[in-house]
Amino acid sequence: MEPGRTWFTNENCSVARTLEVIGERWTLLVLREAFLGVRRFEELHRNTGAARNILAARLRKLVERGILERRPYEEHPPRFEYRLTGRGLDLYPILVSLVRWGDKYVADPSGPPIVLEHKACGHDILPQLVCSECGGEIAARDVIAKPGPGALRKPA
Amino acid sequence: MEPGRTWFTNENCSVARTLEVIGERWTLLVLREAFLGVRRFEELHRNTGAARNILAARLRKLVERGILERRPYEEHPPRFEYRLTGRGLDLYPILVSLVRWGDKYVADPSGPPIVLEHKACGHDILPQLVCSECGGEIAARDVIAKPGPGALRKPA
Lengths: 156, 156
Fold this sequence. Notes:
2 copies of one chain form a homodimer. Chain A is α+β, with helices and mostly antiparallel strands. The first copy, chain A, has a single domain (10-142), classed as Arc Repressor Mutant, subunit A (Orthogonal Bundle). Helices cover 38% and strands 18% of the residues of chain A. Chain A is built from 6 helices and 6 strands. In chain A, the strands form 2 sheets. A two-stranded antiparallel ribbon of chain A has the order 1-2. A two-stranded antiparallel sheet of chain A has the order 3-4. In chain A, strand 1 (68-74) and strand 2 (79-84) form a beta hairpin. The longest helix of chain A has 14 residues, at 92-105. The first copy, chain A, is globular, with a radius of gyration of 19 Å. Chain A starts with 13 loop residues before the first helix and ends in a 9-residue tail after the last strand. The mean pLDDT of chain A is 90. Strand 3 of chain A pairs antiparallel with strand 6 (143-147) of chain B, so a sheet runs across the interface.
């Protein structure tokens, strides 16, 4: 990395922008539940332990940002459930990566609380990060970060 | 997901535990810089925009938690740099997944600020999540979450 980098700052950084959307503890715990199939307020409340006002605020924001969709499931009285949108479903690799690191480094000695079964092959699996071109596994030192089309020419 | 789930709570959840280690905006921006090869306080300060006291506190915590290692690089005056440990390098899939989602949904119309080149194959790539057993791509609906060895028998 050259000193005096000018091609990106927090302003056009995709990490910083993604954190603005989901980078908050309760928000991520709500998303954990959503990926486990939990859709209703009461159950989200019980499973996350988020206070009701905090949970309501986080859900509102996730809907505003197009991550969750609020759908009626009962008319009398009106009740709603929260479902992941396509944009929300695409957050899955983030959640899975958080889980995998946590399972490796901060789980209890008894092991991870959850295991994942791949429907297609039927095995218990560990998701892996690979190269879209050659299929080789990707770790930190295997790639070079270069300025992309959205790089800034000048510091902000 | 059955209502009344008892096999995990926030207490043994790997997402919640990982968030306790890295789930904070400045911490993740410091890690972004570390993965880009930035090691020195002044440069971290400039690139993240974190206030010096906040940056110092975050670095201290990352060292305590075994994510970064503090190493002397100059003796007179004593100066230190911060390098990712093995445990820290293993956070890479989380960062890459944050970047990839951000590039897709919240980047500028001009495109992502960074592209990744895979050293081994020389191509610009998009990291993908695949199954460790069959190599098939993994998305949210391709897997089933099941209680693992660290599942709780009773609610906490």
